[in-house]
Amino acid sequence: MTGPARRQLRFFSRLLRFNVAVTFVYRGDFMIMQLGNLIIPITSLLVWQAVLASGAPLPVSGRYLTTYFVLVAVVEMLASTWTAFFLAESIRNGELNQWLVRPTSTLVNAIANNIGEKLVKIIFLVPFVAAAVLILQLTGIGGGLGYPHQAVRWLAFAIAVVLAAAIRFTLDVLIGSLAFWFEDVQGFLRVSAVIVPVLSGAVVPLALMPAGWQLITQLQPFRFMLSFPMEVLLSDQQWTSGAPRTGFALQLLWLLIFVGGAALLWRRGLRSYSAVGA
Amino acid sequence: MSVSTSSGHRFDKLRTLRFGYGWRVARAIVRQALGREVQFRAQAWTTLAVGVLEVAVAIVPALLIFGRTDQVHGWSIGEVLMVTGAAQLLNAFLAAVITPNQSKMTDYIRNGDLDLILIRPAPAQLFAAFRWFEPAALLGALSGLAVLIVGWLQAGLHPSPAGVLFALGWFVLGCAAVALIWVNLGYLAFWLTSAGQLQEFLATLLTAGRYPLAFYPAAVRTIFLSLVPIGLATTIPVDALRGRNSLPELIIAVLLLGVLAMITRLHWLAGLRSYSGASS
Fold first, then answer.
1. Residue of A106, A116, A104 lying closest to A16 (CA atoms)
2. Which of A77-86, A138-147, B241-250 has the lowest mean pLDDT?
3. Helical segments of B112-246, H only
4. CA proximity to B22, closest of B109, B94, B100, B120
5. Which residue spans traverse the membrane (chain A) (predicted)?
C-alpha cells in the first residue's frame, strides 16, 4: 500500500472510532429512529396479509410476504443513510470549510460515519430481529417465517446488502451535492423519501407490481437498493434460472453509474463552492 | 417581586381579553405566514409538487391491491381511496398548522427561546402552538380532496345529510385529537433532551391511516382509535358516509377530547414549572 493511501486509512480508522462513539451518545434517539423504520414494513405486512386473508389470489404466499417484510426492515436499517442531509447542511452553512483545510475529505468522514452508525445499528438490531422472529413463529402470523438453508444464498444476500448500502450512500452524496447549486435540498430529499420506498420494494414487493411493468421494475436502480437482496435470498425461481448473476451485474452497473455521477457532481460543486474563507 | 408579577399577570389578562386582541394576533400571524410564502416562492411550489407526488404514491398500494381483488374485508377500492384522501387531508392540516410549531418546541425549551414567548402579551400556550403557520402545506389538501372525491364517485355512496354531518364531525374531532397527541409529544421536550425523534416516529405511524382500520388486527385497531387516534379522522368519517352513525359514540368522543385538552393544559403548566430559561 502506498504512503498516501495508508495515511487516509489511518484517518479513516480514527474517524470510524469517533463516529461510533458519537452515535452511542445519541442512543435514545437512535432507538426510536430504528423503531420508526419498522413501521412501514409492518403496515405493509399487515395490509397484504389482510388482502390474502380476504381471498385475493396473489403470486406469492403469506409466508413469503412475512419473511420478505421482516427482511425489508433489517435491510432498510442496514442500507439507509442520512448523509445527504448533513452534507447539504455543511455546504450551506460553510462548515465544509473545516474539511477543505484538513488532510482528508469530508466524504471519508461520511463513509466512516455510515459504517460506524451501522456497527451500532447491528448491536441494537439483534434484539429487535430476535423478538420479531420469535413473535412471528409463536403467533404464526402469515404462516410464520420461511427462509432457505443454503449458505451460498446467505452469502449472496450479504454481498447484495453491502452493494445496496453503497448505492444508497452514493445516491445520498449525489443529492447532498446539489446544495452547491440550490439553497435548499429539502425538496429533493422529500421527493426521494416518497419515491424510493415504492420503487425499492419497501411498500409493495416488486413481485406484486403489474406484469406489464415487470421489465421496468426489474431494471430500475431503486430495486437494487432494497428488493434485490431479498430476492436473492428468498426466490427459488431466481436460483433455478440463474438470474442472480444478471442481478449482480446490474447492481454493480448501477453502483458504478451512481459513483460516477456523485464524483462528477462533487468535483464540479467544490469548484463552484464559495463560502466565507473558501 | 411577587406584586409586580401578579399585577403583570392582571395586565396580561386585560390585554388578552380585550375585544379583538386575539383576532389581531391571529391576523398578524397569517399575514406574516403569507408574506414568507411569497418570499420563498420556489419552496411553496416544491411543497405543492411534493404533496401531489405523495398522494400519487399513497394510492399505488390500493391500486395494486384492487388490481387483484374486488374487496378486502368488506371495503371496495372507492371506499379505500376515500380513507386515503381523508388521511391526506389530515396530513395537510398537520403540516400547515401543527408540525411547524411543534418541531420548534425542542429548540424553544432547550435554547430558552420560550422566554420570548412567555413575556409576550398573548396567551403563551396558544401562541406557542400556532405562531408558525405554513399556508403552502394546505395545498396538499387539494390533492387529498381530489382522491376523496374520486373515491366517493367510484364507491357510489349516497349518504344522508346527517351522514355527511357525522362524517365532518368525526373528521374535525379526529384532527383535533391527533393534533393534541402531537402537541403533548412536543411538550415531552420539557422532560427529555429532545422530542424530535418521537414526533418523527408519530409522523411515520400516521401513514398507516391510509388504509381502513378493518385491514388491521384488533390490537392495532384499538391503538389507532385511542393512543394514536388516526382512525377517528380517516376510517370513522368514511364509515359515517357508508351509513354507520351513532350519536352516543360521537358524544363520548367529544367528552374524551375535552379530557385530552385538559391533560394538554396541565402538561403545559407542569412543563412550565420545570422549565428554567434565562429569565425564569
1. A116
2. A138-147
3. 114-118, 124-130, 135-138, 140-155, 161-187, 196-206, 218-225, 235-241
4. B120
5. 35-56, 68-88, 122-142, 154-182, 194-216, 248-266
- For the four alpha carbons of A46, A51, A55 and A56, in that order, the dihedral sign comes to negative
Q: How far apart are CA B135 and CA B120, in angstroms?
A: 24
- HSE-up (13 A, CA, CB side) for residue B136: 20
Contact A36 B204 (CB under 8 A): yes
d(CA A75, CA A93): 32
Picking from A173-177, B42-46, B98-102, B117-121, which range would have the lowest pLDDT averaged per residue?
Answer: B42-46
One DSSP character per residue, B102-136 reads HTTHHHHHHHTTHHHHHTSSS-HHHHHHHS---HH
**Residue B72 φ then ψ, to 5°:** -125, 115
- Tell if the CB–CB gap between A47 and B200 is shorter than 8 Å: no
| B109 closest CA partner among B200, B194, B198 | B194
Q: What is the pTM of this model?
A: 0.84
- Chain B: residue nearest A51 by CA? B72
CB B68 within 8 A of CB A211: no
Task: Give me the residues of A, 55-114, that contact B with CB < 8 A.
Answer: 55-58
Note the pLDDT tens digit of each residue in A201-255.
Answer: 988 899 888 888 888 988 999 999 999 999 999 877 777 777 788 899 999 999 9
Type of residue numbered B31: R
Contact residues on chain A for B198, CB-CB shorter than 8 A? 32
Name the residue with higher pLDDT: B184 or A135: B184
pLDDT computed for residue A278 by the predictor: 47
Q: Could you give the CA distance from residue B23 to residue A198 in angstroms, rounded to a whole number?
A: 44
Q: For residue B197, give every residue at least 6 positions away whose Cβ sits within 8 Å of its Cβ, in sequence order, or none.
A: A28, A29, A32, A33, A36
Q: To the nearest whole angstrom, how far is the Cα of B76 from the nearest Cα of chain A? A: 12
Average pLDDT over residues A177-204: 87
- Is B61's CB within 8 Å of A190's CB? no
Phi-psi map region of B13: left, alpha, beta (phi>0 left; psi -120 to 50 alpha): alpha
Residues of B in contact with A203 (CB under 8 A): 60-61
Q: Say if CB B72 and CB B219 are below 8 A apart.
A: no
Determine contact: A32 vs chain B, CB below 8 A: yes
pLDDT of residue B276: 76
Cβ <8 Å between B53 and A194:
yes
Grid cell 382522491 in the structure block, residue: B147
- From its phi and psi, is residue A143 left (phi > 0), alpha (psi between -120 and 50) or beta? left
